[in-house]
């Protein structure tokens, strides 16, 4: 998108649009609800967040403040939980955790994903220092791609290409 100026056309992708609808619904439905079972004492909804240090930005569905003094990202996914978690979900949470730590000056030890198509099943991710290092390595790879103006080779994992809007232009 940044290197070749080719749009993703997310407005034509059903899952993307349905996911946006789910997010909009969660913003207005019971906004004061705190997930006590997770130790939530306060939350912020639909938070735009950025890291000047790491050159990343995004929107966190919910920033949770927990009873142990830490914070955590909470994401809704228009997806079913099928006993496996995509690495993209995990790294989304890790990068959000990095931004939360930088902006809120709170430790982030875990993150949560709510699978809306599996009766709002919640999965918890415990983060390690290695997770944060791997996440930042990915960011640095992306920044290098943008800076040099090239795009990476097609993934060797064909399933990653199924719902990718750039699948037809990869080498």
Could you characterize what this model shows?
- The chain has 171 residues and is an alpha+beta fold.
- The protein has a single domain (10-161), classed as Trna Endonuclease, Chain: A, domain 1 (3-Layer(aba) Sandwich), CATH 3.40.1350.
- Helix content is 31%, strand content 25%.
- The protein has helices at residues 14-28, 87-104, 129-148; strands at 40-51, 56-66, 71-77, 110-115, 121-126.
- It has a 5-stranded mixed sheet with strand order 1-2-3-4-5.
- The longest helix is centred in the C-terminal third of the chain and has 20 residues, at 129-148.
- It starts with 13 loop residues before the first helix and ends in a 23-residue tail after the last helix.
- The mean pLDDT is 86.
């Amino acid at each position: 998108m940044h290197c070749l100026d080719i749009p993703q056309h997310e407005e034509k992708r059903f899952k993307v649009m349905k996911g946006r609808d789910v997010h909009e619904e969660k913003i207005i439905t019971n906004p004061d609800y705190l997930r006590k079972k997770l130790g939530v004492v306060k939350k912020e909804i639909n938070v735009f967040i950025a890291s000047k240090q790491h050159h990343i930005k995004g929107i966190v569905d919910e920033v949770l403040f927990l009873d142990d003094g830490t914070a955590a990202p909470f994401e809704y996914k228009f997806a079913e939980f099928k006993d496996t978690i995509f690495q993209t979900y995990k790294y989304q949470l890790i990068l959000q955790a990095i931004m939360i730590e930088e902006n809120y000056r709170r430790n982030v030890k875990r993150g949560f994903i709510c699978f809306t198509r599996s009766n709002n099943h919640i999965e918890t991710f415990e983060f390690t220092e290695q997770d944060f290092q791997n996440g930042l390595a990915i960011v640095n790879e992306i920044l290098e791609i943008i800076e040099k103006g090239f795009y990476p080779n097609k993934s060797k994992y064909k399933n990653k290409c199924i719902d990718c809007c750039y699948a037809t232009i990869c080498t």
